Amino acid sequence: MNEIISYLPYILLGWLLLISLILFLTMGRDKRLSRSHGYRVREHTLMLLAVIGGALGGVLGMQIFHHKTQKPKFYITFPLLALVQWGIVIFLLLPSDLM
């Protein structure tokens, strides 16, 4: 059981990286579709991806693609979620003698 718990921070790190990449790519796709007036990704979907671990990808997507930067729902929520998500990972990765 302790072995599984010791891998938890790395599993969480991998999850955050994967979901962040998915949200980042989804933000780029949605921006491209918004220019061509194509089918759009729902805001609910973007927010869900951020909540389940992809907030950093959302922040990077907003900066690089200049997408959703005028909506407080995104420019406030994404960075706050990213701080919490990555703060937890960093806390879990710290050596136990530092805590």
- N/C terminus separation: 22 Å
Relative helix content: over 70%
- Counting DSSP H or I runs of 4 or more residues, the number of helices is 4
Rg, please?
A: 16 Å
List segments where confidence is low: pLDDT < 50 over at least 5 consecutive residues: none
Order of helices and strands: HHHH
Q: Would you tell me the overall average pLDDT?
A: 92
The number of distinct β-strands equals 0
* Biggest sheet statistics: none
- Structural category is mainly alpha
Fraction in beta strands: under 5%
Backbone shape: elongated
Structure characteristics:
99 residues, mainly alpha
Q: Quick summary of this structure?
A:
By secondary structure, this protein is mainly alpha-helical. It has a domain at 40-93. It has helices at 2-36, 43-65, 72-75, 77-93.
Can you describe this structure?
With 99 residues, this protein is an all-alpha fold. 80% of the residues lie in helices and 0% in strands. The model has no long low-confidence stretch (mean pLDDT 92).
